[in-house]
Amino acid sequence: MADVYNIGALARVLPENPVVIDIGANAGFFDILLLSKIKNAQIYAYEPLSSNVERMRSIASSNRRFDKSVTISSFAVTGKPCEMLRLYAQDTEDNQVVASSLEGFNTDNTKELWISAITFSKIVAEIPGTKIDLLKMDCEGSEYDIILNTPPDLVRRVQRMLIEVHDIDNQFNVNSFSHYLFELGYDVKYTSINGFCYALEACKK
């Protein structure tokens, strides 16, 4: 399992019992890696695709630490409220890692799915305490809706972010996204993954 998030370095800057939100949890790979370094992490994992949710629940059934530490929710996450979100996904029951709310995001996404949705505002409001230690997002273009349409005061409850950011167009791109987070009070850095996708890290000043 590749550690694309550099979990070792991340573990050194997080508290011993961090509160973590994982949006786009896939089959729980990030959560497994994080728990291997920080056993007392409390993770709220959101994954819209049923095949991935089933895999996470299978892991939880055989892994006591995962079961205790990870709260699995089968919702798509949005910024603007909506009951159901349309996703475009690969027409397969296998891991669908590029499902997106954006039509045309990936040419392989030929299947339409309607998924129950929850706003990031509601997620943050329902988590006990005053801060979120880490937000990890891998949601194939929905990062813009989620962050830009959540009230700034709620976004600022997040101390650190790891976000896969995609260049969509002249308005929605890694530069504009980074500037927005900078204006909210974060130090931001990012590295290129490919021609239009970046690994962004933001830390509250």
Task: Report the sheet-strand fraction.
Answer: 25-35%
Secondary-structure-based class equals alpha/beta
Major sheet description: 7 strands, mixed
Low-confidence region ranges: none
Number of strands: 10
In angstroms, what separates the terminal alpha carbons? 32 Å
Can you tell me the overall shape?
A: globular
**Order of adjacent strands in the largest pleated sheet:** 3-2-1-7-8-10-9
Helical fraction: 25-40%
Number of helices: 8
Helix/strand order, N-terminal first: HEHEHHEEEEHEHHEHEE
Question: What is the averaged pLDDT score?
Answer: 91
Radius of gyration: 16 Å
Overview of the molecule:
The chain is of the alpha/beta class and 205 residues long. It contains eight helices and ten strands. The protein has helices at residues 7-13, 29-37, 50-62, 64-69, 120-126, 143-148, 152-155, 174-183, and strands at residues 19-23, 42-46, 70-73, 76-78, 84-89, 111-119, 134-137, 160-166, 186-192, 197-204. A seven-stranded mixed beta sheet has the order 3-2-1-7-8-10-9, sandwiched between helices. Helix 2 links the parallel strand 1 (19-23) and strand 2.
Put the structure in a nutshell.
The protein is of the alpha/beta class.
Provide the descriptors you would attach to this structure in a database record.
single chain, 205 residues, alpha/beta, seven-stranded mixed β-sheet, three-stranded mixed β-sheet, 10 strands, 30% helix, 28% strand
